[in-house]
């Protein structure tokens, strides 16, 4: 009997700290997910762009941590049960819908090529092939800097709606210049500023 009482006392003692810890984890996961979703602007950190691939996982973990925090932090069932129900009824369907939309319209990205600029180890071009139920798209990016401060800029996107628009070749012609050639023979050259930003973004198709 004494062991049972001690166990209950220990449980009550660590209940609120555990709830606070779970709440902190939920907030951190939520902020990380939002930062990943908002990282689409030019010059965004590559680290945050990579987080976008795990936004749904972060969302589920944040929901689980927040639910646990409520269960541990609120002792009155009159408050705990409605709040947990609200969290699950609103959070779970939203995350499921997000997963469906991502699977249906997101397609998949494949890194086709990476190539460092001549004489510069902190600058490289990246070619990504994006496929889905729509036409294939090839996107060219420039990454500049060293992790975790590496940033990414768009250089060009080529829509494969017509065979001649497909990206055929991407090369550095200088440490600050990229040449992109389509299957139809069109040549596009872009100059990269010292900070990594291109002077223009090419859009074909």
Quick gist of this model?
This protein has 205 residues and is of the alpha+beta class.
Tell me about this structure.
- By secondary structure, the chain is an alpha+beta fold.
- It has 4 helices and 9 strands; from the N terminus they run αβαααββββββββ.
- It has helices spanning 2-37, 46-51, 55-73, 77-105; strands spanning 44-45, 108-116, 123-131, 137-144, 151-159, 167-174, 177-182, 187-191, 202-204.
- Strands 1, 2, 3, 4, 5 and 9 form a 6-stranded mixed beta sheet that branches. It has a 3-stranded antiparallel beta sheet with strand order 6-7-8, with no helix packed on it.
- Helix 1 (2-37) runs antiparallel to helix 3 (55-73) and helix 3 (55-73) packs antiparallel against helix 4.
- It is elongated, with a radius of gyration of 24 Å.
- The N and C termini lie far apart (76 Å).
- The model is unreliable at 7-11 (pLDDT under 50).
Helix content: 40-55%
Average per-residue pLDDT, rounded, comes to 87
List the secondary-structure elements in sequence, H or E. HEHHHEEEEEEEE
| Total number of beta strands | 9
Please report the number of helical segments: 4
Amino-to-carboxy terminus distance: 76 Å
Main sheet specs:
6 strands, mixed
Strand content: 25-35%
Outline type: elongated
Runs with pLDDT <50, length 5+? 7-11
Structural class of the secondary elements?
alpha+beta
Task: Give the tags.
44% helix, 6-stranded mixed beta sheet, 205 residues, alpha+beta, 4 helices
């Amino acid at each position: 009997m004494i062991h049972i009482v001690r166990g209950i006392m220990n449980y009550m003692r660590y209940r609120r700290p555990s709830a606070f810890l779970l709440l902190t984890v939920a907030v951190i996961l939520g902020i990380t997910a939002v930062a990943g979703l908002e990282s689409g602007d030019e010059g965004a950190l590559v680290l945050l762009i990579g987080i976008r691939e795990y936004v749904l996982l972060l969302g589920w973990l944040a929901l689980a941590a927040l639910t646990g925090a409520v269960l541990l932090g609120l002792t009155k069932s009159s408050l705990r049960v409605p709040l947990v129900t609200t969290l699950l009824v609103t959070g779970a369907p939203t995350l499921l819908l997000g997963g469906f939309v991502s699977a249906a319209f997101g397609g998949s990205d494949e890194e086709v090529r990476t190539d460092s600029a001549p004489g510069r180890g902190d600058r490289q071009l990246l070619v990504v092939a994006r496929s889905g139920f729509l036409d294939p798209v090839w996107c060219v990016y420039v990454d500049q800097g060293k992790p975790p401060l590496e940033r990414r800029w768009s250089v060009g996107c080529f829509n494969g709606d017509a065979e001649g628009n497909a990206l055929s070749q991407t090369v550095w012609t200088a440490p600050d210049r990229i040449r992109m050639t389509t299957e139809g023979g069109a040549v596009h050259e872009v100059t990269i500023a010292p900070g990594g930003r291109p002077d223009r973004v090419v859009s074909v198709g």
